[in-house]
Amino acid sequence: MTQKIEVDIGELRQITSWLAAADIEFIEISRPGATVRLTMEQASCSEGVDASVQAALPVARAGQAGAPETSLNEQAVSVTAKSAGIFLTTHPARSTPLVNEGAHVKVGDVVGLLQIAQLCVPVVASADGVVMKLRVAHGTTVGYGTRLLELSPSA
């Protein structure tokens, strides 16, 4: 038996505009019997397609969730959130930041925390390099795939 599920394109456009404004790249919405995944694409991916329509199209990518993203403009490696939560630059029991801009880090170094309820999950460097820019302020709520900081890879 097939169940008809209707989705209002206006609602999808509104949701994707909120995602873009919050710099959230991925969201999954579930209801009994249906799941919708929205993944924000870069505007340059499809020439000639209206950006609002392109952003509203669900896209599935296999095997890329854990891969570091490289910015074409800067050759920087983006460290992204692996889940939704509150990004912390310092541990709740300490006053010093885990990393500052200009700090040298190695693969696996803790560069931040994602607070999910009472749990703090470490955010780790995906490459050796220098922290170029913290893209998200301490205490900001982030979603899966949000770029948290930029690393300049070590040569």
From TrEMBL:
Residue ranges annotated for the Lipoyl-binding domain, each copy included: 94-151
Superkingdom classification of source: Bacteria
Protein name as catalogued: Lipoyl-binding domain-containing protein
Pfam families: Biotin_lipoyl
